[in-house]
């Protein structure tokens, strides 16, 4: 039975009781076995947690010094549609960006400040982030390949947003739920979210009970035979 009535209640439950490992386990059992983003995508600080709905952003490599060439007027604009995408963030959404070569920063301090004004939940990028001290000072959840100052401005542009994107074979649709912690970032498709989180809550609570039994001296074999959890 569903324990939440809206996203606020669901996200609160996730933050209080769940973690990526148990959510991933449930999706594996449901046949969704490719839901974790690349392991290079890490929180800037180990205790960072991100929970929210994806606001998908599609980036492409576009050399700034060649922007006079070509027929697409969008590619002649600084950052392409990045500023529009940033301003379109809604409360509890996660800016999630992919599509370009992961060799420059796709997120920074000023973007974090604007996202916070939009009450966004965090940022997850398939590349690097920069202005690390500033992001940490803002305490804004940022998941990336890590700190690297090389900027996207002369190297890449946002060419669309709120469209399906992909990271190493993992599809992310606008509105899917993202959960990120020290163990990585997983994607829960909207079409299965109710079952995933209902079952994940049950499993997480069971794991806490098994942990207590093991700490009291129960053998691993006996714990698994009795509870089916390990």
From TrEMBL:
**Would you say which domain of life the source belongs to?**
Bacteria
Recorded hits in Pfam families, A to Z, give: RraA-like
Q: Which InterPro entries match?
A: RraA/RraA-like, RraA/RraA-like_sf
Q: Which cofactor does it need?
A: a divalent metal cation
* PANTHER family per record: 4-HYDROXY-4-METHYL-2-OXOGLUTARATE ALDOLASE 3-RELATED
Q: Per its record, how is this protein called by name?
A: Putative 4-hydroxy-4-methyl-2-oxoglutarate aldolase
What is the species listed in this Swiss-Prot or TrEMBL entry?
Parabacteroides faecis
